[in-house]
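To whoever picks this up:

The nightly regression suite flagged ATP-dependent Clp protease adaptor protein ClpS as changed. Nothing in the input moved, so I suspect the structure step. Input below, exactly as stored in the fixture:
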Amino acid sequence: MSTREKIQEQHDVDTLEQKNNEIVLYNDDVNTFDHVIDTLIYACDHTPEQAEQCSILVHYKGKCTVKTGVYEELEPRCTMLLDAGLSAEII
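Regenerated output under the current build:
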């Protein structure tokens, strides 16, 4: 009876880590819930439920993270929020 050896090769894998940033939306006394919800759906690809939950959190907590990702992906989305009159920043 013969035996066979299984050899497991080791491979080094380089991973590129990218820092995730966040778009934080801040409360204001100007914009309506409907405007905030519609803008989050448009700019951040939220579902209506996500957008509504974020708008409620912003209203009661003062701010809410509405999108996370790499800076290059978030910048145009944050610009859309700002152009719509909302208060937001990338952190």
